[in-house]
Amino acid sequence: xxxxxxxxxxxxxxxxxxxxxxxxxxxxxxxxxxxxxxxxxxxxxxxxxxxxxxxxxxxxxxxxxxxxxxxxxxxxxxxxxxxxxxxxxxxxxxxxxxxxxxxxxxxxxxxxxxxxxxxxxxxxxxxxxxxxxxxxxxxxxxxxxxxxxxxxxxxxxxxxxxxxxxxxxxxxxxxxxxxxxxxxxxxxxxxxxxxxxxxxxxxxxxxxxxxxxxxxxxxxxxxxxxxxxxxxxxxxxxxxxxx
Length: 243
Description:
Elements: H1 4-7, H2 14-20, H3 25-34, E1 41-42, E2 46-47, E3 55-66, H4 83-88, E4 95-100, E5 108-110, H5 112-120, E6 125-128, E7 131-132, H6 135-139, E8 145-147, E9 159-164, E10 168-170, E11 173-175, E12 180-184, E13 187-191, H7 196-218, H8 231-242
Parallel strand pairs: 3-4, 4-6, 5-7, 6-8
Antiparallel strand pairs: 1-13, 2-8, 3-9, 3-12, 10-11, 12-13
Helix pairs in contact: 2-7, 3-7
């Protein structure tokens, strides 16, 4: 088994990053399923800006626990070093902020101002298993954001941010810092960092093969022999690539 602690610090290759930009989350779940990973899709999240859904980046994690009334008071917002704000100012360019909100939706995980700051810092997106507020602002923000919806209440009402860049659970999926987060119209998938390079390459090849198969199906071919492809179909596919 590969040493995850070693590979997580290695930069994702540009070829892998480019591949992730062109493969679907559906393809990625199939690739991960083939490697024994059945729980990679973050359930129940939707894109808040339908025109801006494609997202690829390394996970920068943020963890919350239930708020407590004597600690999480409104005056907390005066603290520039509040963990939530420190996280926003720490997310590297090209990374995705992934927030563990414990699946709670009654108060927002963050709002439009913090999201805008993430955009100006070059973040690749936001993922939370909670909600956001200022939903209209997110609809027009050029930053992919996937969440369970919107809520008017500030995060302090039910969330207490305690840590960043630690393993978290988001939408019932384990997310480790540096894992690759990919989002599209079907939702969000977490690719373990130590598998990212091989998954990216094989997912891209799967997409090419399935595009060829789709052409055959559209032309009237039956499923038998075409999907899944038999030896003859695979020979035809390979021959096409040699032309």
